[in-house]
């Protein structure tokens, strides 16, 4: 469906975890399309003096990568933070390319990830209602091969220049539009998530999330994201190496799939059955656990502190 020379470049965002970066690149390199794909590594600058040596290690490693059509390092002298790094990096890449595949240094992909992303980018290239393609989904039964949900997401994803133009960095304006439209419950997956609160936290400086603003930007315009019926990514950063990566809910520890996904053209509408399954799945995680705290409450706390602090 896609050919060499028409493949989307991969934008990979790194900071101070060279071992995770190596795993992420190794997984990407196992994709059949890796050798025809351009890889751009965006390295944020050091926040602390101890980060300098890690940055040097990453630079040396990136210079040795040879599994892709080309490898480029975009290096920041100063620390600008993950949110600013991703927004700037995606925007910069889309100035030169029509589409981009985005991964962070803690996302290990399936060998079929790049094929799925490029096929979907090609199929829905001209569908203005499609905001992005996503690679992660909870491990659950009964989902179709692919399906649409309203909004956007952030664990291994892709988008086009035309869609990224809707990204609004002004969280206050996004929250106002959600509240004035009475959209809080829909935005919060009928109460199964706390995305509105995440957006408030971003406005109040309790997180610096680019992802909640990307999700809200697409959601408010009625745009959709294509999701896989089985996950093609595994988050390897939930191992205690990150600031907030402790007591991670088990259902986030999903393995990357070992089978390809077929990308057929679907009607560009939200799949209400898949949405309900996900809402019910998340609500089911609220069953009491041994320490008396519901899993869903831990999920919400974890999501607010990590998944959308990006």
Structure explained in plain terms:
The chain is α/β, with parallel strands linked by helices. It has a single domain (10-307), classed as Spore Coat Polysaccharide Biosynthesis Protein SpsA, Chain A (Alpha-Beta Complex). It has eleven helices and ten strands. The protein has helices at 18-29, 51-62, 82-96, 113-123, 161-164, 171-180, 184-187, 195-203, 211-220, 272-284, 295-307, and strands at residues 10-14, 38-43, 70-75, 99-104, 107-109, 130-134, 146-150, 157-160, 224-228, 233-235. The strands form two sheets. An eight-stranded mixed β-sheet has the order 3-2-1-4-8-6-9-7, with helices on both faces. Strands 5-10 form a two-stranded antiparallel ribbon. Helix 1 links the parallel strand 1 (10-14) and strand 2 (38-43). The protein is globular. The two termini are 32 Å apart. The relative contact order is 0.15.
């Amino acid at each position: 469906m896609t050919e060499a020379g028409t493949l989307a470049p991969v934008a990979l965002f790194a900071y101070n975890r060279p071992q995770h970066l190596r795993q992420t690149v190794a997984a990407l390199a196992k994709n059949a399309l890796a050798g025809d794909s351009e890889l751009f590594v965006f390295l944020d600058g050091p926040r602390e003096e101890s980060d300098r040596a890690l940055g040097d290690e990453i630079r040396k490693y990136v210079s040795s990568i040879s599994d892709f059509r080309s490898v480029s390092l975009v290096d920041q002298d100063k620390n600008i933070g993950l949110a600013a790094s991703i927004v700037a990096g995606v925007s910069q890449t889309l100035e030169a390319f029509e589409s981009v595949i985005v991964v962070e240094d803690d996302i290990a992909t399936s060998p079929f990830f790049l094929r799925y992303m490029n096929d979907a980018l090609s199929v829905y290239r001209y569908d203005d209602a499609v905001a992005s393609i996503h690679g992660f989904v909870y491990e659950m039964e009964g989902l179709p091969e692919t399906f649409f949900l309203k909004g956007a997401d952030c664990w291994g994803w892709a988008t086009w220049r035309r869609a990224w133009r809707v990204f609004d960095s002004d969280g206050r304006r996004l929250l106002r539009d959600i509240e004035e439209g009475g959209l809080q419950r829909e935005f919060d997956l009928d109460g199964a998530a706390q995305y509105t609160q995440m957006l408030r936290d971003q406005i109040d400086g309790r997180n610096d999330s680019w992802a909640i603003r990307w999700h809200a930007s697409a959601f408010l315009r009625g745009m959709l994201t294509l999701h896989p019926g089985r996950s093609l990514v595994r988050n390897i950063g939930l191992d205690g190496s990150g600031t907030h990566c402790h007591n991670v809910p088990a259902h986030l520890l999903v393995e990357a799939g070992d089978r390809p996904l077929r990308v057929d053209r679907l009607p560009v509408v939200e799949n209400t059955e898949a949405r309900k399954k996900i809402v019910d799945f998340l609500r089911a995680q609220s069953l009491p656990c041994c320490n008396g705290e519901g899993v869903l409450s831990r999920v919400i706390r974890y999501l607010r502190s990590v998944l959308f602090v990006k």
